Amino acid sequence: MITLDHLAVSGETLAAARAFVEDALGVAMQDGGQHAVFYTHNALMGLEDGLYLEAIAIDPSRPAPERPRWFDLDRFTGAARLTNWICRTEDMAVLNHCPAGAGTPVDLARGELRWQMAVPADGILPFDNVWPATIRWQTSSHPAVMLAGTGVRLRRLTLTHPDAGALQTALSAVFSD
Description:
Blueprint lengths: L2 E8 L3 H12 L4 E6 L4 E7 L5 E7 L22 E8 L15 E7 L2 E7 L6 H4 L3 E5 L5 H4 L17 H9 L5
Parallel strand pairs: 1-4, 5-8
Antiparallel strand pairs: 1-5, 2-3, 3-4, 6-7, 7-8
């Protein structure tokens, strides 16, 4: 099944996404890095309870990828904001219990980190991107333990969607208790 791994704040630029997080929380983010395949880059912030927060944007120094970017970043416009929640699993077969369009696993790496992320062919997650992205870490160390402690804790994550009942039913099929 799946459990919460991290949150993503998207921006038209990484500077905008990073500033949004730092201004809202009063804590500096750490430099992340570049992502091959989707040509994005990020900054990171460690949260309590083994979670982390990611500011992410298209990397303008890289060419357009051969496929749509994750997190629907190709269509992102406007002010930086929380756009995605990412849940981890030990077995990508959990995708068999997710709504159609939850994605297929893509092998990714950044530095020593290795992971698979389920990415929809069009980059858009089910329920108008309210569905969580699914990740399976393939390294023994999780990014949250590599980040400086900030004392910031996620207290609550509230999802809204016009068909909240269907979203809740779909989530109950994959969420760990």
